[in-house]
What we know:
The chain contains twelve helices and twelve strands. The chain has 317 residues and is α/β, with parallel strands linked by helices.
Amino acid sequence: MNKIFITRPLPPEVLKKAKTLGEVTFRSLTSPLTTMEMTEALQNFDIILPTLGDLFSESIFQKVTKIRCKLLANFGAGYNHIAVEAAKEKGVIVTNTPGVLTDATADIALTLMLMTARRAGEGERLLRKGKWEGWHPTQMLGYHVSGKIAAIIGMGRIGQAIAHRCHFGFGMDIIYNSRSSKNLDFPATYFQNVEEATKKGDVVFIAVPGGKATRHLINRRIFSTMKSHSILVNISRGDVIAEIDLIEALKKGDIGGAGLDVYEFEPKIPEGLLEMENVTLFPHLGSASLEIRTEMGMMALANIVNFLNGKSPPNLV
Ligand code: DGY
């Protein structure tokens, strides 16, 4: 019987289905795997279902001998925590769960935009502290996003879902940067250069995949050319933004605010961000709804089922 290891608690429906697939070991901790746990898992299981934070780095694959594992069926669309090429060299293939979380993640991006632009977090904090003295015409004036320019960096599935919402929901003009221009079902202007797009955006959304190629893509140089009222929203991976440069840009007023769902050193949030009122901070909520997390789990299991049936898993990366 195939031995399967699931590295985190998952929604009940997913666990129920998983039990039917083989001899399954469920890890009850919510923390990422330690190096020792990863080593043992690679040696003792045929299939591992890992997720964000389980750092299957190049060095793990280089160091571990007698690898039994043949499939890492990642729970999540992003897989920058897995050294895919190093895994393949050791005969371990990798799958992910794209698509099902697109709308949920775009919704969180829009929530971050609105909360930051309209100072919603700040307002709620004020009220909960008992400091609200009542309505008046110049109280807590925020930024009106309707009709403004949304710059989308990364026009993949999630970038397009964000753009769609911004255009059809808020009448925003869409400009974007991605590796190539796309055929889109809404009007949008393509810029080949990141900075050309970021400097024109009133709201700048980061929706590129994480990984070496995009690390610190958004940095001091980019911030220095952005509009001083602009809002930066990141729902991709934390290290796409140089966090120290972001804090400096916010302090200097190079940009007007930020809405962040992800952080460079998750779950550590720098003090500099925590103390700022013009920043909205979420604990990586992108796909966090029961329906979506269930669909992600079912998709990871479907990859496993295909693999067990000798077929190529549908979401091979
Ligand atoms: C994803 O699917 O990439 C989410 O960020 C969780 O990893």
